[in-house]
Amino acid sequence: MDIRSQIAMVFHLDKCIGCHTCSIACKNIWTDRKGAEYMWWNNVETKPGTGYPSKWEDQEIYKGGWVKKGNSVLLKGAGKFKGIKGLFHNPNMPVLDDYYEPWTYQYENLFEAEEGDDQPIARPVSLITGEYITPKSGPNWDDDLAGSEEYAKNDVNFKNMSPADHEAMFQLERMSFHYLPRMCNHCLNPACVAACPSGAIYKRGEDGVVLINQKKCRAWRMCVTACPYKKSYYNWNTGKSEKCVLCYPRLEAGEAPACHHSCVGRIRYISVMLYDADKIEAAAASNDDDLVKNQLAIYVDPFDPKVIAAAKENGIHESTIECAQKSPVYKFVKKWGLALPLHPEFRTLPNLFYVPPLLPTMSYANEEGSYETTSESFWGAVDKSRLPMSYLASLFSAGNVDTIKTVLKKLMAVRLHRRAETVGDLPEEEATDALRDSVMDKETADDIFRLTSLPLFDQRFVIPPAHREEAIEMLESTADVKGNSGFGFKEPPVRGL
Amino acid sequence: MKYHLKKSLLLLIGIIVFTTSKADEGQELFTKLCVACHTIGGGRLVGPDLKDITNKRSPEWLGAFIQSSQTLINSGDPDAESIYKEYNKLLMPDQPLNGGKVTAVLNYIAAASSGTTDNAVAPVRVDLLVNATTEHISDGLLLFSGKKRLANGGASCISCHSVKDDRIFSSGTLAKDLTLTYEIMGSAGVSAIISNSPFPAMAVTYSKNPLTTEEVHNLTAYLRSVSQERYYQHPVDFSITFAIFGIFMFLSIFTSILVLYFKRKSKSVNHEIHQRQSPVIN
Fold first, then answer.
1. Domain for residue B48, yes or no?
2. Same domain, B66 and B139
3. Mutate which of A95, A131, A148, A150 to test chain B, going by most B C-beta atoms within 10 A?
4. Residue A123 near chain B (CB below 8 Å)
5. Within 13 Å and on the Cβ side, how many CA atoms surround A313?
6. Most exposed: A436, B222, B253, B278, by fewest CB within 10 Å?
7. A146 and chain B in contact, CB less than 8 A
8. Which residue among A91, A94, A133 places its CB closest to the CB of B264?
9. What's the mean pLDDT in B27-31?
10. pLDDT average, residue stretch A170-191
11. Are B110 and B19 in a shared domain?
12. Does B28 reside within a domain?
């Protein structure tokens, strides 16, 4: 048992309103620089849709992530022979048009244009070439199903779906979408770290944040292709790759990352989880159907005395263990089993978990093709959910429909229970049956409801203290510094000693 | 009167000095530039015997031919063309002589032909290599092939010239093959051309880096041995091999590029969508 601590996150997709506030908060802090204009360390996608960069989920195009080989995993796009073959050109790299060409508008023209017959306009200007351009696409070009014929219909997750199901999803009556905020998953088995030839990317020991050492980066851009989530970006101005740093300066000060802090829908939860590093390889190499189950088995119970002892032996601080015990992430992921990793089939063991959207159907097209608004139950059955189970399974459980169904039934049970509690217009049996089906007692259902709908700030963000004072003590004697700080002079005083 | 006398005297002296020096200059130029290929009354060498040439051709024609025989031949002059054909289509090198110097040379030839000048003993072919040994020849080989540097830093012969010699593997293709040169020109001709070349390119090359007398001698000796030994030399011709090897290497590099770039993702996945969008109007 090799217990380590990892900062992990949960995004509750039922609460996401797709406002992009998280993206803007991140952009203002981190990527509002030359060479980083096109980067969105945090972005919000509409699903179904091709996302940003386009079709990032299709690893036959970008060759990211890992593939299972025997009892272990190999990088899909790297390796000894492939590495030499692609040494000089990295064949699967996304090009700028896969992201988009960043642009701004020539605003000053609105004020400074000479008087003429026409209204002055602010023409779009490329932020890369400085020339006038006509924007061809943007980071959320397909927002809210815009251009769905071009984008949503080409969603990579339809690959394993029958043409009939595919067609049915785009019928007006069934049409639906949900948002998918994405950021670096700070994976347990990060492909970017494994692919970096310079050894510039590392996973921080104390909290598992994955960072790129800007001094060591040599612009190989292997991380850009290797990351299956395409969350490592190449800065064309500095010649270095960059990625989400999980606002580690904020984390070390005990604050939530900017995207979490600014979230309007309060969908984001962040905290620490304890995991057993010995199980990583076996979990990453499990069969598709067991991927989620085996990944969740890596995270251990922070109340188990054996775990606590092993954690302390590994130098994990008491306060970190306490945070792990209060962790909302642990509750969503392990205790309640409501949150699932995004695309576990990439085998990177991501630490960002999503509570899938329920998207219940209130009406649907019946067999005669007419519009059916009545349903036997209040929210309709999970099976009749507007998004086909196979679609959600493709996103969150490597195609395992049962895993998705279990989670959605639990979410539905909580809703039915709360409806029965607060409004009382449902038959008693309907709520209790649902709870029984999901093997859930009323207290758990209430806890889920509380942490979902009424969480306090400190319940959403349980961030372990970084204990910088201990880090400083390792570098210098604090007794030497004591008495040396405080008031000083820029110019020495004339009087005095 | 006295003034006029003085003036006439000065003029007379001037004319005498001028004409005699002219004759001297003509002889000097002839020895320097012409003697490698021409004689006056000594018979044919590489070029024709020039005895009485001034009676046969007009000074203008001769001047034009000396300054640029090629231009004259190309202009379609029948006499020039027939000479060119008669002498194995070997072009006479262009001589860097202005009108005055041409006249001086022609004057000298006329004088030498009629035997009025004391110095006008027609140059005869002399063998400069009477004392040449095998050491000189092997030294000449080293100098020719560039294995030994020329004392004044000039370029080795092999940079431009080739010879038929098994010991020399790969040689220059910019200038003439020198295997038969000795046969045509003799030792005097060869050493004259090496030491003081009439060919513009060669003259420029060695103007700042002249060869030493010893080097000239050894190279001449080497060229003689090349000419004599040519029937026993069977140099391997690599040109076809090189061509095949070159094509092979080109194809292998080309295919390796194709292999390396196979399945390269070169355009955006949205390329088709972007192509269909209306063109940029700016």
1. yes
2. no
3. A95
4. yes
5. 9
6. B278
7. no
8. A91
9. 79
10. 89
11. yes
12. yes
Predicted pLDDT of residue A33: 93
The answer on B144 and B200 residing in a single domain is yes
Query: Is residue B266 classed as helix, strand or coil in its secondary structure?
Result: coil
Would you give the distance in Å from CA B188 to the centre of its chain? 15
- Total domains in chain B come to 2
B252 located within any domain: no
Token duo for residue A290: 């067991």
In a domain, B264, yes or no: no
Gap from A446 CA to chain B (nearest CA, Å): 46
Closest alpha carbon within chain B to A125: B282
The partner residue sitting opposite B274, judged by closest CB among A50, A123, A136, is: A136
**Is A148 an interface residue toward B (CB < 8 Å)?**
no
SS3 A260: helix
Do A277 and A4 form a contact (C-beta atoms < 8 A)? yes
Q: What are phi and psi of A44, to 5 degrees?
A: -120, 125
What is the overall mean pLDDT for chain B? 82
User: How much is the pLDDT for B2?
Assistant: 64
On the question of pLDDT at A173 being above 70, the answer is no
CB–CB contacts below 8 A, A to B: 55
- Beta-sheet pairing, A364-365 with A371-372: antiparallel
The mean per-residue pLDDT over the stretch A345-353 comes to 96
Co-location of B49 and B101 in the same domain? yes
Inter-chain residue contact B265 with A97, CB threshold 8 Å: no
Is there a contact between B277 and A136 if contact means CB atoms under 8 Å apart? yes
Nearest to B260 among A61, A85, A136 (CB): A85
pLDDT: which is higher, A447 or B112: A447
Mean pLDDT of chain A: 90
**Alpha carbons B181 and B173: distance in angstroms, whole number:** 16
State how far the Cα of A52 lies from the Cα of A40, in Å rounded to an integer: 9
What range defines the domain where residue B31 resides? Answer: 2-114
Nearest to B39 by CA among B133, B121, B149, B104: B121
* Residue A120: φ, ψ to 5°: -70, 150
Asked if the model's pLDDT at residue A340 lies above 80, the reply is yes
CB A298 within 8 A of CB A489: no
> What tens digit of pLDDT does each residue of A32-49 get?
999 999 999 999 999 999
**By mean pLDDT, which of A171-185, A335-349, A376-390 is the weakest?**
A376-390
Instruction: Report the pLDDT value the prediction gives residue B120, as an integer from 0 to 100.
Output: 46
**For A193-202, how does the pLDDT look when each residue is reduced to its tens digit (9 = 90+)?**
999 999 999 9
Does the beta carbon of A150 lie under 8 angstroms from any beta carbon of chain B? Answer: yes
Neighbours of A82 (CB within 10 A): 16
B274 at A interface, C-beta within 8 A: yes
Task: Out of B261, B263, B267, name the one closest to residue A95 (CB).
Answer: B267
Q: What pLDDT is recorded for position A79?
A: 79
Higher-pLDDT residue of A31 and A162 is: A31
Q: Nearest CA to CA, how far is B141 from chain A (Å)?
A: 47
Q: CB neighbours of B278 closer than 8 A, spacing ≥ 6?
A: A134
CATH number at residue B43: 1.10.760.10
**One domain, residues B109 and B149:** no
* Phi, psi of B63, deg, nearest 5: -60, -45
With an 8 Å Cβ cutoff, is B264 touching chain A? yes
Whether residues B23 and B110 share a domain: the answer is yes
Instruction: Tell me, yes or no, whether B35 and B91 share the same domain.
Output: yes
